[in-house]
Design brief:
The protein is an all-alpha fold and 92 residues long. It has five helices and no strands. The protein has one domain.
Length: 92
Amino acid sequence: MDATGDIAKQYGKTQTQVAIRWLLQKDFISSVIIGAKSIQQLEDNMGAGTGWKLTDEQMKLLDDLSSFHKPQGRMYPYFFIDMLNTDRARKF
């Protein structure tokens, strides 16, 4: 099971609730946009905001797992972006 699944199991929550809770606890996110096609999905989403919090360790784990690392080498789409922006490079 993955990190959100493990955390969800600890709290008796769903992975969706863990993901939304993680966003709600971030200082720089002012709101979280949710979508629901049914009352059940809405209730699941709303369960992220009531009466529980992720620990600092859990927040760090999810932050680390979601961080973006540009792959080494010239992989798509990075080589393409670099190629298109050659004339935009700053000259110091």
